[in-house]
Amino acid sequence: MSRLEGKVAVITGGNSGIGLATAQLFAAEGAQVFITGRRQNELDAAVKLIGTNAVGIQGDVSKLEDLDRLYAQVKERQVRIDVLFANAGVGDFVPLGSITEESFDKTFGINVKGLVFTVQKALPLFQDGGSIILNASVAGSKGIEAFSVYSATKAAVRSFARTWTTDLKARKIRVNTISPGPIDTPILKTTGLPQEELDQLKTKLASGVPLGRMGRADEIAKAALFLASDDSSFVTGIELFVDGGLGQV
């Protein structure tokens, strides 16, 4: 039997990268998947890739009215949620001294505010005993140059997993965090770096990983599947590093 057979899963930022890889795997394991994304064209393409078990709902997690619309459509179609992967996130390399209010507000708006209300607004539909997975980053535990604002948002995500585990213990809802290391996904192109510097960054990132390479989106998806399924029925409040050893040695 498939590990998510009959489950309903919501994945934010499911139109590319880690979110898309996770949506594909969850659907293959039997889940009905709802994905969100800010760009309609990418969202439509992602739904086609995932197949018949997918519904795409355009929206920005930092806009509460978009989250309300997301959950209204989930309620209309499925009534409940069994698994939530709060995955949507952004990040820019901006050294201290060059941080702008605009970039700060955008990063915290999506990575922190958006995540908080993604989870909170899902609770009325959430099945007791379900699984909430938060996507953080090894950056939340490391001092990566020029990445302070992003890193701070991911440290906050780790903290949420601890406190929400206790907040939701009466409902037996498990809350866990995945902290990826450097993953080769389209989000790297949003850093604003020119291609030559982006290639140099990838080489530098890979060189710091004990396994000697960047990770793949499907490797994070497999970790998310573990936390979503009954395979992790006695696991809650953790930070699962999927980082090739970067944050561990």
Keywords:
249 residues; alpha/beta; Rossmann fold; 7-stranded parallel β-sheet; 7 strands; 17% strand; globular
SSE order, one letter for each helix or strand: EHEHEHEHEHEHHE
Count of DSSP H/I helices: 7
Provide the helix percentage.
40-55%
**Number of structural domains:** 1
Mean pLDDT reading: 96
Parts with pLDDT < 50 across at least 5 consecutive residues: none
- Biggest beta sheet summary: 7 strands, parallel
Q: What structural class do you assign from the helix and strand content?
A: alpha/beta
Distance between the termini: 38 Å
Rounded to the nearest angstrom, the radius of gyration is 17 Å
Number of E-state strands: 7
Shape: globular
Tell me, what is the CATH class?
Alpha Beta
- Spell out the CATH superfamily: NAD(P)-binding Rossmann-like Domain
Which strand order do you get reading across the main beta sheet? 3-2-1-4-5-6-7
CATH architecture classification:
3-Layer(aba) Sandwich
What can you see in these coordinates?
This protein has helices at residues 17-28, 40-50, 64-77, 101-122, 148-167, 195-207, 217-228; strands spanning 8-11, 32-37, 54-58, 81-86, 126-135, 174-180, 239-242. It is an alpha/beta fold. It has a single domain, classed as Rossmann fold. A seven-stranded parallel sheet has the order 3-2-1-4-5-6-7, sandwiched between helices. Helix 4 links the parallel strand 4 (81-86) and strand 5. Helix 1 packs across helix 7, helix 3 packs parallel to helix 4 and helix 4 (101-122) runs parallel beside helix 5 (148-167). The longest helix has 22 residues, at 101-122. It is globular and about 45 Å long.
